[in-house]
Amino acid sequence: MAHIIPLGRDRPAPLALKDSTCTGCAVRSIALCGALGCHEAEMLQSIASTRRLDPDDILYQEGDKRLRVYTLTEGVLRLSSLLADGRRQITGFLMPGDFLGLADDETYASDVEAVTACTLCSFTVADMDRLMSRRPELGARLLQLTRTALRQAREGQIMLGRLAPVEKLSSFLLLLSARAEERGLGASPVHLPMSRTDIADYLGLTIETVSRSFTKLRNQGLISLTDAHMVHIPDLRALSAVAGVNPR
């Protein structure tokens, strides 16, 4: 059962990261705030608060009034929408360093839930708008992040357009591998914090088809599974060939 965490009306407590500073944040170099120098980062810290979520907690729901924007600093979030027939469609997964909420209009465009325990920096929309008007480098960084998000969305569309389930799963694993590399982690092994149900709802497949696709890739020697949440990719080029994408 998912849980909604109330926002409350009062200004939240000051930001408290691992060393209690924005400048020491582990994802600062890839996050929106990376555009700011040390002094400006202190300004950002003064308007920030911390949100923590347990697995399956809801950050916000589609249609909620957009009051806050967030930077994910730890954990993994899933974005989803409810289809007309009642089925859930997962539209993406957010990783540490991702910024969410700023591209939405007056209301949020999707449900956002925690896959794992998560920590986020939270800002009111008004505070962030004021800071961006004073610091144009934030706008430039946001444009860069938007371009990255559009590229990832395009890759997702290509992935979902593939006919074979094995191609879809291979593309998904390569996408997670690439995102790990962007964060300074190795291309393999790939950490899969999401459930097989989440993967199925993202790829538009059944759980059984996802499981069979994992088995097929493993039997072909293209992946090995340490456990349900850790996938080794011995040859990225070989897996890219199955996915039908250019190797990195």
Automatic annotation (TrEMBL):
Keywords: DNA-binding, Nitrogen fixation, Transcription, Transcription regulation. Residues 42-101 form the Cyclic nucleotide-binding domain. GO terms for molecular function: DNA binding; DNA-binding transcription factor activity. GO terms for cellular component: cytosol. InterPro entries: cNMP-bd_dom, cNMP-bd_dom_sf, Env_Response_Regulators, HTH_CRP, RmlC-like_jellyroll, Tscrpt_reg_HTH_Crp-type_CS, WH-like_DNA-bd_sf, WH_DNA-bd_sf. The keyword Transcription regulation applies. It comes from the Bacteria. Residues 163-237 form the HTH crp-type domain. This is Transcriptional activator protein fnrA.
